[in-house]
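Sat 14:20. Reprocessing the chain from the morning session after the first attempt stalled halfway. Input below, unchanged.
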Amino acid sequence: MQLKLAAGMVTPLIVATALFMENMDATVIATSLPAIAHDLHVDPIGLKLALTSYLVSLAVFIPISGWMADRFGARRIFRSAIVVFVLGSLLCVVSASLSSFVLARFVQGMGGAMMVPVGRLVILRTTDKADLVRALSYLTVPALLGPVIGPPLGGFISTYFHWRWIFLINIPIGVLGWWLARRHIEDLRDEAVPPLDWAGFALTGVGLSLLMLGLASEGKHLVSTGWSLALGGMGMALLLLYLAHYRKAVHPLLDLSLLRLPTFHAGVVGGFMFRVGIGATPFLLPLMLQLGLGFSPFVSGLLTCATAVGAIFMKTIVARILRRFGFRRVLIVNSVLAGLSIAAYALFYEAPSYVWMLAVFIFGGCLRSLQFTSLNAISFADVTPASMSHATSLSGVAQQLAAGFGVTVGAFVVQGVATLRGHEQLGVGDFAWAFVVMGVLTMLSGLMFVRLDRRSGEALAG
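Finished this time. Tokens:
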């Protein structure tokens, strides 16, 4: 019992090391986007490609992460993924153009696709469902330190040193995670692993890459508008071919039949809509604070890290809230409140007081943390252990695609508003309309939870 308890405490902390590295990396780069754009001589909005390429890489390789863990062992894949992520970080350091930077971020995504999902899979397979909400909360609290430290650290480095140094932070963290995994992660594997659906992997991998590249490159970033439309169209065609392939495949890469489970459907589809609305915030908010309001990267980072502070606080009380109100009510009401918190960014006009901004950031962080924990838990409420690997893959793909779509939609709105207003240089008003649109999308996600049974997730809430 003591060994089991120790493993149950140590494993989430090791996986949290990987989450810490990934989350800090994402928040560091978001704060440093204007500095990176200036150094690479590109439009800041064009750097949406760097964010979406990372997210697409996650979506492409997450589906095979579970199979690789089952086939080669969770510990081996987890440690290898850390190595790939650190290698991608080094490639970011030496990038000299937008295309090379986008490629380096794609390599980072390959490591992230294997790193966090495999670690989460270990936790899901070794944790009782009654303890799942608590385990996920313990897992994410240390990982949320990344978003707290990342923005001010990235802003400090970009303001007083050089943005390339921010990617070197991952090296010592990666070494620590690699060493801890070697000692403590269970080498879980399945002796009866079905063959990998290579055709499905090719169709979804290439299809998702082309679709997101086409959408993200619109605005003549890297390729022309014609090529953007062509790439997006080819990507959509390949994804439609996967649907035909799925109906005939014996062991499909993505098991879409799981969407028949009401709780999984609500968590994945409703979570997709919610994450589209939220997804643009890490990209647009630092740009608005720096390009629109004239804050330095350091000040911008100090302000935006308040969101993570609110998220950490919410993790300490989320279980009690879910027990008191239930998953259905929380997911519906919180979608509306979270959407309003995003739309409130539109009120940041002509440098409002720091107190008002910090209050909005902290409150918004609490709401998003509550929603993410609820979505992550309800998605797996009725998934059997045998289907857990497929469920984590499909859920992970949906999450990354939603974030990528959010960045793309947010960039479209900013560019569209700036064009209509005849602005060559982006202003705070251009960003304000984008946050209103993304806030409305977030609120609409609440409709996806109306059909949930009122008692859904009772076993998880405890």
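The chain has 20 helices and no strands.
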